[in-house]
Amino acid sequence: MKGVTGPEEFTTGVVGGSGRWPPLPANWSYSGLREIEECPRRWMLRRATYPQLWDRNGYPESPSIPSLVGEVVHKSLERVIEALAAGGCETADAPCGFEVMKGLGGYTSLIASSIEQRMATLEGNPRVKDHVGNLRQALLLRLPDMRQRVQSVVSMTEMLPRSPDAAPATMQLDARSPLTEGSYAEVQLDVPGLGWTGRADLVTIRRSGCEIMDYKTGSREDDHPNQLRTYALLWNRDAKLNPSGSRAVRLTLRYPSGDEEVPAPGEADLLALEHDLVKRTETSAIELAKRPPPARPAAETCKGCPVRHLCSEYWDFMESRPLAKEEGSSPAFGDVEVEILSRHGSRSWVVSYRRGPGSGGTAILRTMSESTVFSVYARQRILNAVIGIDEENPNTLVLTQTSLTEIFALNATAQPSAVPRDLGKVRT
Question: For labelling, which of 59, 165, 259, 353 has a CA lying 20 to 30 Å from the CA of 220?
Fold first, then answer.
């Protein structure tokens, strides 16, 4: 990490990218542990504070449309299932289910409000301030598909009515009480002695035992069963919701295409799982405490990483990977660090770039607006540029900015020039 100024402060070389490392997790979760194990640097950079950018914790997010769709679908499912469970409905088709959905305003209204709730979290975000309207419109265009996905999952869900005076499992951790028979949505599991927490989508308590269901809005992943088994461990060890320490008897992953049953762990399995989580947590805590935290650049790990522009190891890794067009493929999105050489047109610039020993050259950078202006020899890190070839000059690489492209300026004093200035001129 460039320009470390103190044990908890850091600079990345990116304008506005100076910050302060976050503390270690107060409570560990399965998704958090997986992210840390993939790349401790990414976890820390995402949660650090950046006072030059804004007064919130974490680096400003730049969510993709697919991820937003998944979040809205999951949030809408959460609201429907909890309302049905609280209303004592066994299914959405039951008479009380129609009344519950009427109270929610129907699926379309429910999903639209979930979209607005998610958009509200992006207000004041400097990274997407000019795109919130476009993101909202893109989600609204996908509303019919999201409605179908939510309805499909809800239609497959059967619940056990719970007592009208049963407290919701989403209450404050210090006020929770044992769960009685019935179905509960978004159950917050908490095991202080283990330092772990988790949120199960649906927990049903029957006389035969506890059933845990987790909703997945995307495709199947190999690690999904492990996450569900972790919830089974947390349920078994949660002294407030489950003071008797009973084990889950049924675990189900619910996908849009159908259910996948996961074998419920026995006592020996739970002990082994707990030992494994403790060991992995301790190892990850040691990694997070390093300054700087280690980075683990890899094609799959870094793909879509929201803070890769802040990570010098990522850009060192990228130098060994040729641009898509240098490999002879069709135009594609890619990341590239450039240095501005001169203005080429009202919306284009001559830039130089480098990709590994002996690989690199000059290119044309085409921007979306004439108001985008760079200083000569200023260095920029460009994410998600369209990489292609100039139709009139086949030997000229073209980097095109789109609505998905982000350009981040580097501090002039961050490091020596990342690209040579004597690579020749673009042929025009």
Answer: 59
